[in-house]
Fold 3-methylmercaptopropionyl-CoA ligase.
Amino acid sequence: MKGMMMHRPLKIADLITFAADTYPAGEIVSVRTEGDIHRTTYKETAGRIARLAHGLKALGITESDRVATLAWNGYRHFELYYAISGIGAICHTINPRLSAEQMIYIVNHAQDRVLFVDLTFVPIVEKLRPHFPADLRIVIMTDRAHMPETTLEGVLCYEEILDGQPGEMDWPDFDEDQAAGLCYTSGTTGNPKGTLYSHRSTVLHAYDMCVTIPRVLNEGSRILPVVPLFHVNAWGLPYGAPLSGSSLIFPGGALDGKSLFDLMDREKVFSAWGVPTVWIGLMNEIRQRGRIPEGFGDIVVGGSAASRSLIEAFEKQGINVCHAWGMTEMSPLGTQCNLPPEMADLPFDQRIDRKQSQGRRIFGVDMKIVDDAGNRLPHNGTTPGHLYVRGNTITSGYYEDPEASKPVFDKEGWFCTGDIAAISPEGFLTITDRSKDLIKSGGEWISSLDLENIVMSHPGVANCAVIAVPDAKWDERPLLIVQPSDEAQPQKEEILCHLAERVAKWQVPDDVVFVDALPMTATGKVSKLTLRKQFPEAPHDA
Ligand code: ADP
């Protein structure tokens, strides 16, 4: 027997309509590419989204068309998220840090019909335009007064698309499984692969994040997504914030420690979300100024592992650190590490130990770990295995890419994350490595993440990475690459000693290479792929 309740499709547009009705004064503050600060509310934004949606229809955009964005975090990008999906089209966010080759690949693969571009990225588009589809329309995200001189032919102006359009929209109903967003992974191997989010998965993810991180997502809370709207939906914040009544503070393109500190201080940001590299920059600024930004109380850190020293530094300043893990293919949230009440009174060190783990799963994400043969492994906290997930917010295959899709699902339909992890009896997940980053030395696995964590606690180290290099005797050996902190000149021996005191002797790398800066991926993580190319073997003076 079926239940007798109404069935309304879950739709993204309903989130902004709800926010405009329920939290009309909820704010969206943006650092604009034009150079000033822009302030608006959910109520005003809902009106502009309606105008933009009418404007998109006037451009000929219809259901399932792909409309691309190449933009920083700001109110216009936010409006595009809602207007595009609201009319049943698909918002394809492009990461401006991708290589030219990757960008050309994804715009053509997605067959984008319109590309919305921030002023900053106009030069990139000018260069790549000949390689994009001939009928691609280009819109510059500014007003008439700020339209730049450009070699691009027939470009449109964002504000003119809204001009004269009605500020209300009767959002169409469609199946909740209708595609809404498209985001390509940065493609560390092979071509980038597209994750195609649906209205249903996006709304469920918004619910999930609100119930899982209520400390941050609540009415009146002020949240800074440093994580870009061009990468995995800024971790879901453009949807979770309006649903919970939180305000959004968008930083534009200024993501250095000083700019972030000033913005957070001025806007009384409570919670800021981003990858570890960003927080290293902010912590340097906090140390220099000898205080934290006013109102600051929380960070959500993920995208790559947050080191113990980073977590400790923020917690010592009274800032709650929530370590989170996820993937583009997972919308992205998988786990978050806010501690349960029974752990609140643990001694400081033990709390930090716990917070180093990636935390417990969010509702709707099932997790299993398996051995090489696919047999389930126990959740005892010490046995690592290949991590698989399934759930309503997880991809069921890559967009128009059956070949790439096949190998990532097991017989039971679970998605292979490519991460190696252990799960404790209390449900805490600890990622030990990406499977392709694991180091196998003399038949024993060495976790690069464990080593990096320890090295990061050395005061002379700003950032580091451990990669495998081939070794005649041991197959592979770990090589440590260190970016020293400003003015520090740590010695090799000193760093290796620091490690030797904390891990088994055979795990200690044979050598340390110092670099001025570690190469980063398009999503702000240390690029081990580049490092492996740079250091295909141990340096000869080892
Ligand atoms: P990209 O590869 O394009 O940067 P993702 O952001 O989807 O894309 O990367 C997901 C991967 O990032 C995860 O599979 C995991 O290896 C890593 N990751 C994400 N969050 C964490 C975390 N908190 N700790 C360790 N690794 C993480």
About this structure: Residues 262-437 form a domain with the Rossmann fold fold (CATH 3.40.50.12780). Residues 185-186, 188, 232, 302-305, 323-328, 332, 358, 417-419, 431, 434, 521, 523, 525 surround adenosine-5'-diphosphate (CB under 6 Å).
